Amino acid sequence: MTKKIRVAVLYGGRSGEHEVSLKSAASVVRHLDRARFEVVPVSIDKSGLWQLNDLRPIEQADGESLTIQRDAPEVRLARTTDGQVALMRIADGAAPGARESPGAPEVQAIDVVFPVMHGPLCEDGTIQGLLELADVAYVGSGVLASALSMDKDIAKRLAGLAGIPVAPYRALTQTAYERAPDAVLASIPETLNLPVFVKPCNMGSSVGVHKVKAWAGLRAALEDAFRYDVKVLVEQGIDAREIEVAVLEGEPTFVSLASELNPNPQHDFYSYEAKYLDPAGATVDLPAKLEPDRMERVRALAAEAFGTFECSGFARVDFFLDRQSGTFFFNEINTLPGFTAISMYPKMMDASGVPYPALLSRLVDLAVERHRKRHALARDYAA
Predict the structure, then answer these.
(1) Cβ contact 288:259 at 8 Å
(2) Are 250 and 179 contained in the same domain?
(3) pLDDT per position as a tens digit, 194-216
(4) Residue pLDDT, tens place only, 136-195
(5) Whether residues 157 and 280 fall in one domain
(6) b/e per residue, 231-251, with b = 16+ CB within 10 A?
């Protein structure tokens, strides 16, 4: 009998998208193939505490969000004496690999980490760096691709260098804004026209995003966005359709059919509320109602972006389609897209012939293979 792969599903996190992660992780846990994988739920609460949760009550509840169990033991990643990466229950005086000693904390070996977390410290290369240091296989992009993709300013610069069209925008640092707020506010209308979108540079799920229709509202929008990040984007609003494409690593790269988001008019744009709080927040056309050449164009751009950022595993690439010019503008690339029951990445993959359970299996397999290849590289750690 083939040994099951033990997958630590990492969820929660110290970001404004903590609650979104709980929803995404619930779907991942529900759909991971139990014939192949043993699921180990590991939470990170808003204070940064890692806890090993009991899977049984989670599966019995079958809720829309995973819980973080209050009495769950605190754990940390460790390497045992036999070379395995494990989750070790924290106890004073305990050492990794000492499970045979009386009173030692329980040590649970893991094979792969599936980080189902969104936002800063979760998908910006931070947790990926920790997992690299722990030398454990993990799902998704590495440190470089995660960091580049998370910073919307750097992402747009890199996309532009690759020849992918980018709409006009300004990047503002909190330091520059606080030094001369009036001057900064006065400079925006010199290069951009109303409406504009203000958004934190390193957030997702539309947290802290505002559509500004009058310059009088720009100050409040900037100050709210600066609550979430030290760098903020002011983007030119364009009369555009919102098009998304899901990409899955492979030879060749697998690119889904594109979808189109149609926000409910009462939300004005695809806000956090429209995405996660209002069941009628938006309608979706899947596939998007595009002419065949337009569909192929946006899929090609998505594959180009995936390669440009050197992504691994999977990503969702978002575009604006200008209604006037017919140009696709790169909006952002998300290396850990939402996996909730209503998230577009799994929906697009399913519509393109890759059902949710098969998608998750593929992502875990890619993580294992990537880790194996990296270990096959020649390395010399001699002093």
Answers:
(1) yes
(2) no
(3) 999 999 998 765 778 999 999 99
(4) 999 999 999 999 999 999 999 999 999 999 999 999 999 999 999 999 999 999 999 999
(5) yes
(6) bbbbbbbbebbbbbbbbbbee
- State the virtual CA torsion across 120, 124, 128, 130 in degrees, nearest 10: -50
Residue whose entry in the numeric block shows the structure tokens 């992402």: 155
pLDDT at 68: 92
The total of other beta-carbon atoms located within 10 Å of residue 213's CB is 12
Please, where are the H alpha helices in the chain?
Answer: 18-31, 55-61, 126-134, 143-150, 152-161, 174-179, 181-191, 218-225, 272, 292-308, 344-351, 356-375
Q: Which of 78-92, 220-234, 250-264, 306-320 has the lowest mean pLDDT?
A: 78-92
Place of tokens 């290849």: 373
Rounded percentage of the chain residues whose pLDDT exceeds 90: 73
Q: Which of 236, 256, 284 is the last residue of a domain?
A: 236
Half-sphere exposure of 377 (CA within 13 A, CB side): 9
Question: How does DSSP classify residue 72?
Answer: P
Residue 52 placed within a domain: yes
Q: Is 10 in the same domain as 130?
A: yes
* DSSP code at position 270: -
Answer yes or no: is 351 within a domain: no
User: Which contiguous run of DSSP H or E holds residue 169?
Assistant: strand 169-173
pLDDT mean over 120-138: 93
Catalogue the active-site residues. 17, 205, 276, 316, 318, 332, 334, 338
Distance, CA of 250 to CA of 2 (rounded, Å): 25
| Model pTM score | 0.88
Number of domains in the chain: 3
Q: Is 92 within a domain?
A: yes
| 344 is a domain residue | no
Indicate if the pLDDT at residue 110 is higher than 70.
yes
pLDDT confidence of residue 265: 73
Provide the domain limits for residue 312: 148-165+239-335
Higher local confidence (pLDDT), 282 or 48: 48
**CB of 364 closer than 8 Å to CB of 114:** yes
159 with 274, same domain?
yes
Give, in order, the Cα–Cα distances in Å from 78 to each of 37, 83, 215, 333, 373. 21, 10, 52, 32, 22
**Paired tokens of 88:** 């070790």
Q: Which of 211, 236, 261 is the last residue of a domain?
A: 236
The strand pairing partners of 283, in sequence order, are: 262
